[in-house]
Structure formats: structure tokens, C-alpha cells
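seq:
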Amino acid sequence: MSNTANIVLRDENILKTINFYSRTTKLVNSFLKPYYKDTEIEPIVAHEVKALQMLAEYDIAPIVKAYGKGFIEMSYVGEEAKSVSLEQIDHIVSILNKAGIVHNDLVFNDQLRNCTILNGKVYLIDFQLASIGRIPPVEDIREKFWRINYGSDEKQLRKLWLKDHL
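struct:
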């Protein structure tokens, strides 16, 4: 979601600052607000932090170092991955299922997105559109901004992998 945030490498960590002028950010914040009524920070930040904290024990996403109004500082997890193996897909999807998270933004226009690779290990980033437990996907974004195939990270990743390897 490049128009919703600015990403800067700082002291071997990533600093993600939210662009609150973005239409997408405004839409995501308004959608998530009922689920994050009791937080001091913006819903879009609280949502991503929640997903990252839920995945911390599995080492498939950045570790949150600090967060606050409009920012998340997290561990650096490498450069953009161009492809992932079927074994990596199975591993990632099993962890997401165990954690009760559907990422919802791993494949767009038949291109892998929001996956990084560091020392041969695959990580997931950008959980702003994730379904977490009872929080559904941000459906309005799919209709208003682009076509995202919600509901099955595994199906989308396998389809992309098959396209690239047949």
C-alpha cells in the first residue's frame, strides 16, 4: 500500500509512517475504527501492530520495536521477494491459519506483493488489509481502489506459483 505509508530504513530497523492524506488510509481508518475504539493510536496503526504482535513468535513478519500516533518501527526483514517456493507458501499459510489471520494482500495483478526475503527466509509485511479473527477484510477498498482476491492467501499464492513454474 505504497500511497498509505512512507518507509525508511533507520538504524537497521524500518520506520513506517502513515500518510493520513491518502484516500485509502482514510477509508481503512474509518472501516477499522469500530474495532479499535479503545486505542489512543489510529486504527490503521493498531491493526497492523496487532497482526505483527500475533505473528512475533513465528518469525514470519517484522518484530514491532515501537509504535505510536502515525508510526510503527519494526525490524528489517529484507528486500522484496520476487517469488517463493511451494514449501515456503505452505509454511506461511499454516502459520497464518494457526494465528487466525488472512493477509488479503499477497497477490495483485498476478504479482507477488508484501513478501520480503532475508538470508533465504521469507517474511510477510503490510497487514493493513488483513482479516484478524472477527475483523473482516476491508471490502470497500477492494471495490473502490483495486481488485484484491480476499479469503484465501494459500489459493492466490499457489495460483501464482503454478503460473510461474509451469
